[in-house]
Task: structure prediction
Amino acid sequence: MQVFEFALLMFALVGIFKLIRLAIIHNKSAPRRDENAELLERLRQVEERVQVLERIVTDERYDLKRQFRDLGA
Result:
């Protein structure tokens, strides 16, 4: 029985150390709230820029200007 108890104890210790290591790694890699807020703000700015570009490209005058430019070239 002693060998079985030793093996069981070693297995439990290895499992506990792996859980502790995983918790430490998770705490280090978790983004902070201010990083999340900064990323959300940048995403909002990019979305606004895309909307402006979509308006420009879908504008009828844009297509007309492009056609004039193509004629002149």
The chain has a mean pLDDT of 83. The first helix runs from residue 2 to 29. The chain has two domains: 1-30, 32-73. The CA atoms of residues 27 and 34 lie 16 Å apart.
